[in-house]
Design a protein that fits this description.
This protein has 288 residues and is of the alpha/beta class. The protein has 9 helices and 10 strands. The chain has helices at 24-34, 55-68, 88-108, 124-145, 160-170, 181-186, 191-198, 228-235, 262-277; strands spanning 11-15, 38-42, 71-80, 112-116, 148-152, 175-180, 202-207, 210-212, 215-218, 242-245. The strands form 2 sheets. The protein has an 8-stranded parallel barrel with strand order 1-2-3-4-5-6-7-10, surrounded by 7 helices. Strands 8-9 form a two-stranded antiparallel sheet. β8 (210-212) and β9 form a beta hairpin. α1 packs across α9. The longest helix is centred in the middle third of the chain and has 22 residues, at 124-145.
Length: 288
């Protein structure tokens, strides 16, 4: 995950999905004040950073992050690579959307772009074939710009096994995986199984917590039912990469505000990592 080798400390990020519409300067103050090294930028027109941003504005955002010493971990886009498209114009638009996300990430210095499967209720074979074709098509541009496009475990491909099936067929390093721990859990997959499936492709991990499968309102890390200790244990020495807290306040506006929870969330992850480091044999990679 991001080249972790067991000697590197884990790095922590949070998604701007948890602070909808917040200006970049304020996001950076939160990150530095709460001890986070990176930010996942939700790339949507209602946010300050999105694909329609001009070159001058992109350069300004990149400078802001560099001056603060905070990494732009990823551009979290909304492209759906397994979605059904009915005509050539729609297919061309899908390709443009992916390309624009890659270019935005490159301009911001972000190593990753997040995309969704979005296959809906389509037959798995057709949805998977479309995802493979689109990820292969954007791979040359991603390689040229030094960006990896990460397929999130989500919706039609919510488990590591289903995402890995697509990525194995793509066969390009520029197409990787983003492990969203909630969706794999909802899909009935144990963390060790998810890691075993995604290890060859893994970019980074999105952590979160919820009360139950029937109540997905975001909670502070450690206050819910998601198996975060097992996720850290499954990662093993790969836990030296990025853990990103995706707190979905944009979709649950009555949830507690994220700013006051950030430091506590980082401390919870650090405790999990410290506890795992103390396990016998913890230096061995999980899933192998």
């Amino acid at each position: 995950m991001g080249g972790g080798d067991g000697s590197a400390a884990a790095r922590f990020a949070f998604s701007t999905l948890g602070v909808p519409g917040m200006p970049v300067a304020e996001v950076l103050r939160l990150a530095t004040g709460a001890g986070y090294q990176g930010v996942e930028l939700r790339a949507h027109p209602e946010e300050p950073v999105h694909p329609l941003l001009g070159a001058r504005e992109r350069a300004a955002v990149r400078r802001q992050f560099a001056d603060a010493g905070v990494a732009v971990l990823a551009v979290a886009g909304y492209a759906r690579v397994a979605a059904e498209v009915r005509d050539a114009a729609g297919e061309a638009e899908s390709g443009r959307e992916l390309s624009e996300l890659v270019l935005l990430a490159a301009d911001l210095g972000a190593p990753y772009v997040r995309v969704f499967p979005g296959g809906g209720g389509r037959p798995a074979r057709a949805a998977g074939a479309d995802a493979v074709r689109r990820l292969r098509a954007v791979a040359p541009l991603a390689a040229e710009r030094g960006v990896r496009v990460l397929l999130e475990t989500h919706d039609s491909h919510r488990t590591g096994a289903s995402a890995a099936g697509v990525l194995g067929a793509v066969g390009r390093r520029q197409a990787g995986a983003l492990w969203d721990v909630l969706h794999c859990w909802l899909g009935g997959e144990a963390p060790a199984e998810t890691y075993a499936a995604l290890a060859p492709y893994l970019g980074y991990v999105q952590v979160k917590d919820v009360a139950s499968a029937d109540d997905l309102t975001p909670l502070p890390l450690g206050d819910g039912v998601l198996p975060l200790p097992a996720v850290v244990a499954a990662l093993g020495r790969e836990a030296g990469g990025w853990l990103c807290w995706e707190y979905e306040r944009r979709w649950y506006p009555r949830a507690a505000g994220l700013p006051g929870l950030l430091a506590r969330g980082r401390e919870h992850l650090e405790r999990l990592l410290d506890a795992d480091a103390g396990r016998p044999g913890a230096g061995a990679p999980a899933g192998g």
